[in-house]
Amino acid sequence: MRSKLLERPALRPLTFRDYRLLLGGLALVQLAAPFQFLTQVFWLQAKYPDHAALSTSLIAASRGLAMVLFSLIGGAIADRFERRRVLLVTESASLAAHGAVAFLMLTSPFGLWTVAAVAVCTFAASGVMSIDGPARSASMPSVVGMENLASAMSLSMVVSQVTMPVSLSLVGVLNAVFEPGQVYAGSLLVWAAILPMIAALRYSSVGGGRRDIGMLANIREGMRYVRASAAISGVLAVVVVVQLAGMPVATPLGPVFMIEVLDFSTAEVGFMGMTWGMGALAGSFFLARYRWLTMRGDTLGIVTLVFGVGVVGFGLSRSIPLTAAFDFMFGFGFTATSLVAATIVQHTVADDVRGRVMGLFPFTIGFANLCIAPIGIAGQQLGLAFLVPALGFAALGLIAAVFGSRPQLLALRSRSAGPAPEAAPHRVA
Asked: Residue 290 in contact with residue 340, Cβ under 8 Å?
């Protein structure tokens, strides 16, 4: 079996024991995430229907604020400490934070103010995962080697998207049968497998961040590195645009849009979300099969165009088949943009600042989540029927502006920044 995997470069990362463990843990996290995000929306719709759009936006903003505040710190931590141990601490803390959210949703001890308490616990959970993400991303070269990095990232995205359609289809059905708090609490069972997987990891990966200076000085070093690289800063600018336009529509305003504008039931929202997930899965499989495309700037331009057209069509369509088709494009473009951008950056960045640079990806996601609050307020005033397609048109315009101001991005072909770190990856059957 191992020899067959070695013959197929796209599957070669699976020969590494620690990569399989990381991949399994990632799959379980991705299985739980839609339950948590969408179940909060359903909980708010059931408990506080008059404040649903605003409340979901505020909770998303708390998630975004934590990512903005902690992702850069998380990158510095990933470059200063043993990354494997960082993952064990963050996953343990994540279980505790999500457990507190489940308790609040089950009991609603403070009435309407429970929403604020949920937002605080969501802030904590998001902050923890903002430290987890850079450590996980920065570990990859040590786990599989630089030559297998593109395949490893593509496979990780494929596994994430394989679990997502299943999760999205189940979450609507389960929320129709059980109370939202019960569904959220059930999602915590995945940590019974995640924690042993993280504890069993053997690789060694320590970043090159200086410990003789403060954390803020480490962060400033990383930011200077990004500003000095036209390729990295340009790619990140594209990611910011896509996250700002796509994140509010993907969650939480998209489900509210489908309920209020398209008159969907919770089960129908789940199945339409599965269409988005199928698009994301298709994008992941396509780029895993043609992994060389993930290291090209023109690929980045194409997938962002697909993304923008998908958001516009999703917001304008009132036909279920057309809505599903555009939602598929939305999911394809959104996921492919993240994968292509991250692969280009991973192959361009030096290892001693890898954690800090990769920390900018959750930072952009957090910034987008933070902006959901004012976007949600605008949606409350202007109507989601106007807001959703407007976000798509804005994304298309801003993406064109980024590539127009940096035409060299389209000609970008990423290269490995250097040899893999000294620690040899563990390949164990």
From this structure: no
- Nearest C-alpha neighbor of 383 from the set 273, 261, 300: 261
Q: In whole angstroms, what is the distance from residue 411 CA to residue 339 CA?
A: 18
Amino acid at 383: G
Task: Judge whether 322 and 350 are in contact, CB under 8 Å.
Answer: no
Per-residue pLDDT at 428: 41
pLDDT, tens digit, for every residue of 111-161? 878 888 998 999 999 889 888 988 888 888 889 887 888 888 888 877 876
pTM over 0.85: no
Q: How far apart are CA 217 and CA 312, in angstroms?
A: 42
Q: How far is the C-alpha of 238 from the C-alpha of 223, rounded, in Å?
A: 17
Tokens (6 digits) for 205:
């990966």
Model pLDDT, residue 426? 41
What region does 31 belong to: left with phi over 0, alpha with psi -120 to 50, or beta?
A: alpha
pLDDT at 208: 65
d(CA 308, CA 297): 17
Predicted confidence at residue 332, as pLDDT, reads 94
Cβ atoms of 234 and 127 closer than 8 Å: no
239, 402 in Cβ contact below 8 A? no
Cβ(316)–Cβ(327) below 8 Å: no
* Residue 314: closest CA among 327, 328, 301, 296: 327
- Give the residue ranges of the chain where pLDDT is below 70: 1-9, 50-51, 53, 161, 164-165, 207-213, 252, 414-429
Coil, helix or strand for 296?
strand
Cβ of 22: how many Cβ atoms within 10 Å?
25
CA distances for 337 relative to 4, 226, 230, 300, 427, angstroms: 30, 19, 18, 6, 30
Contacts of 190 (CB under 8 A, 6+ apart): 28, 29, 31, 32
